[in-house]
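Mods, move this if it's the wrong board.
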Amino acid sequence: MPGACGQAANSYILSPQLADRRILPPMNDNWRAALLAARRRRGVTRAQLAAGAGVAAATIKAYEGGLRRPSRAALVRMLDELRVEREERRAILESAGFAPDDRSRMPDDRLRAESLSRDEAAAAVEHERWPCFVVDKFLSVVAANRVAQALWGVDLSLEFPDPLDRNLLSVATNPRFADRVVNWDEAVGYIVAERKAHDWAPEHIEQPSALLATLLERFMSGDPKYVARLADLWQRAPEQWAQKMRWSYPLIWNEPGIGELRFRCLTGIAWGLEGLAFNDWIPADAPTWLALDHLAAR
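Not the wrong board. Structure tokens:
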């Protein structure tokens, strides 16, 4: 019956794979150059990639040279082995004609509508009584309230315009800030552990991702005593980060003319496309609250 057939057609549910494929852009060969660039960026030979991804070196050569197309499973294994960052991973999969996977999938329209922009995140922290700031998914400070800037002795509207200089790993080797953190190894250890195990793949200094390689170049130019300690923390940090959405760590800050201020630092993921996270330095005792009120009144 026409009505029954029409109803069946309208109510037919596509499989998740086909549903994803309906919204993909046209397939092209851009993935080949991107895959080759990712392999060279990591300094990995075809033989090394083949051993890690379970794909023959000759097959990888054929992929890069335009002679063969990979299966989705083979391409995913190569992206895993090369630890390709989220956005690039998504672009490569889509270019090859495949739906993004859980490690590269962008949020849907509902998430986009509910996402916090950087300006909204900055406005959300501005009126807190304690130091509060926002970092992006690369751990660079994108906003900090007035109390935080007063405590740090900076004006971010005038200083540190380069995001790399605002990265928490770079800050950790800058004596202007590092010298004032009494429990430096303990506090920075948490930051290092989170960065080392970022997203889904553990990071390694010996074979860094493109982002980590850039950060390494920057913080290696910091104070040698902190660079050496940070490198040691990196080697000792676990490769898995159990905390997913929210975690905390203690921080003791030496404020000139006042003394030691004690905080319980809370980090929580913001609901947003940019991977923003809120960082709240909550005073751990009454003297710290009083000192912050004094700093804020300056």
